[in-house]
Design goal:
The protein has one helix and ten strands, in the order H-E-E-E-E-E-E-E-E-E-E. By secondary structure, the chain is mainly β.
Length: about 160
Amino acid sequence: MFITLASLIVMIPLCSFAAKPDFSGQWTLNESKSNLGEGRFFSAATMKVTQEGNALTIERTRTGRNGEARTTSETLTMDGKENVVNGDNRNSVTTVTWSDDGSVLTIKSKREFNRQGETFEMNTTETWTLSGDGKTLTIQSDSSSGMGERSATLVYNKN
C-alpha cells in the first residue's frame, strides 16, 4: 500500500506538467464548421503559425472587400507581457497568456486606428484551443469597437 501511495504522490505532479499545445502549422479556415457572424472580412482564410520557445508568430491572410489577398504578420511573446507595435496609422498593445492548466492560449489586443483624422479603438480577445489530435484549431474571437460588438467562432484545419 505504501508503494502505491508513494507512486501516486510522484505521478500527480508529473501530470500537472503536461506539455502546452503547439499551434505551429499551416491552417485553412473551415467555413462550414465556423460561425463567422458579421466578421467575414475580419477572418483569416489561411494562417501560418510558428511557435518557438516563448515566441508566437502569426501570419494571417485575409481576402479584402475587392477580392485581393492581404497578409499581416505579428510576433508575440507568450508570457503575459505587453507587445507594443506603433505604426503610421495604427498602434496596438497585445498580451498573450496561457490558462492555468496550459491548454488554452488567450490573445488580448487593444488597437487604435487613425483614418482621415479620426481615431478608432478596437479591443479583441481570441481564445485558442487545439483538438487532441492537433489537426483542428478553434479560435473564439470577441471584439468591441465604436461600431459595436462582434463574435465569431473560427475553425481551422491543419494542412
